[in-house]
Design brief:
mainly alpha; Cytochrome Bc1 Complex, Chain D, domain 2; two-stranded antiparallel sheet; 43% helix; 277 residues; binds heme C
């Protein structure tokens, strides 16, 4: 081989190396968009969330990391004893935990364990995506017949810290089976007169003969109850709650009895919801 031949071969080798590197770079570039999916698929069980990943095991508020513990604990206290810890925003005699038992740490009754992985979510009321701040304002203005909390204030921030802490470990957007009320299915036409009797026989001993509450159970109607804009004022929610969870710790009513007593309870007087308060 003469010198021209050697130079030609060298140039050829360099061109081939450059072309190869270019091809590899291009392949890498093309593979880029699919790589996040590849990471998910290679993760714990693929992109679809396995039921086994959704375990009910909320941590205790007092075990929160030290830098957020004060907030988590305040959020917990607001839910347990709203009358003391957020008095100025409440317009009735209820506490959040009257409906969200044990500050929402119970699997039954309007649990709040996992709410942090489900919001923001679409809500009919707003006809838009809604975050947990707005959702919580709803319960203050309606269930507590009170007024909205300043979003940046200590109370609201504490509630957010609490929701997030008790949702610890649940995968984002997981299907959390214990959230919400399981609505009743029945063809029964609710009968308020029959409901009045059920109330006297079953509910009155705790909620009072007049339904206005006693030392052991909160009011079901009247000036110190939730207002007519509250979720609980809807027949479907009141009846589901009553059938699944009342009497407390020992639910006994059939679906049809729960519908009857709910028709009676939701027809009783209660505060009227005023928007913009
Ligand atoms: C009279 C009963 C009642 C009281 C008291 C009450 N809530 Fe609720 N809350 C409900 C009902 C019913 C729902 C869900 C029903 C619906 O779809 O509107 C709900 C839903 C929620 C949700 C959303 C849960 C989810 O799964 O999406 C949050 C957060 C919440 N409440 C916070 C609070 C806070 C904080 C308080 C106290 C300031 C409170 N609630 C007081 C009845 C109540
Ligand atoms: C053994 C006592 C007891 C009986 C009987 C009982 N409840 Fe309750 N109920 C409670 C207690 C206590 C709470 C509040 C739970 C808490 O704070 O942990 C409550 C909460 C409620 C609430 C949500 C808070 C509110 O006041 O709006 C509704 C609704 C309710 N009960 C309906 C009923 C109905 C309807 C009956 C009859 C079928 C009934 N309860 C029977 C003890 C009772």
């Amino acid at each position: 081989m003469n010198s021209r031949g050697i130079i030609f071969s060298l140039v050829l080798v360099v061109v081939l190396i450059l072309a190869g590197a270019g091809l590899l770079a291009m392949l890498g570039f093309m593979a880029e968009p699919s790589s996040p999916r590849a990471i998910l698929a290679g993760g714990s069980g693929g992109p679809s969330l396995q039921a086994s990943q959704v375990v009910f095991d909320p941590p205790r508020p007092e075990d929160a990391p030290t830098d957020i513990r004060e907030g988590v604990m305040l959020g917990y206290h607001i839910l347990m004893d709203t009358q003391t810890y957020a008095k100025q925003y409440v317009g009735n005699k209820l506490n959040c935990r009257n409906c969200h038992f044990n500050a929402g740490r119970e699997r039954n009754t309007l649990s709040l364990v996992g709410v942090a992985v489900k919001y923001p979510k679409y809500r009919e009321r707003q006809k838009y995506v809604t975050d947990l701040v707005t959702r919580t304002q709803g319960c203050f203005k309606r269930s507590m017949n009170g007024k909205a909390l300043p979003p940046e204030g200590k109370h609201m921030q504490a509630l957010m810290a609490y929701y997030h802490w008790i949702s610890k470990g649940l995968p984002m957007y997981a299907d959390v089976p214990w959230l919400g009320l399981k609505k009743l299915k029945s063809e029964h036409k609710p009968n308020p007169a029959a409901g009045k009797q059920i109330f006297a026989q079953v509910c009155a001993r705790c909620h009072g003969d007049d339904g206005l509450g006693t030392a052991i159970a909160p009011p079901l109607w009247g000036p110190e109850s939730f207002n007519d804009g509250a979720g609980m004022h809807k027949m479907e929610n009141f009846s589901a709650f009553t059938h699944h969870f009342m009497p407390k710790n020992n639910p006994t009513l059939s679906v049809d009895q729960a519908l009857d007593v709910s028709a009676y309870a939701t027809s009783q007087p209660r505060p009227h919801f005023q928007a913009g308060k």
